[in-house]
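Reply to dn_fold:

You asked what the input looked like. This is it:
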Amino acid sequence: MDQHYLAIKSALYAHCLREVEGRLKAIEDSLTQIKEARNSETKSSAGDKYETSRAMMQIEEDRLNAQFLEAAAVRNSLRRIDVRAGAGVVAEGSLILTDKASYYISVGVGRVLLEGTNYFCISAQAPIAKLMLGAEAGDERSFNGRSFTIMGVY
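and this is what came back:
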């Protein structure tokens, strides 16, 4: 694989990993705050207010735990990607250059500006990624009524 594209893939991978790790850290911080608030809250004479407050905290904690598990699964799928792999066909971990946009199939973190070029980091489950999976350079695809040509797969 061309060193230029390997460097781009490596930079995009590192960006995606930082984003996912940042999400995990933010969720952990929120969970810590909830636990501290619950532990510091004392039962007052207004028992219903206390119970309602604890129930609300529990709902929020459950929601955050679900988000944490989802983000951890995303991190695990990202860690399975080998940035050095480049089979010439679109697969998870591929950098795809089209005549309209550039994509990195990894995790869905959105647009990343790198060396003056926009790259869209998308998951393999994204509709446009599913459309491109298995494609090669020179293949044409159409998405949302717009046609594009795959110029390169790295």
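The beta strands are 95-98, 102-106, 110-114, 117-123, 140-143, 146-153.
Hope that clears it up.
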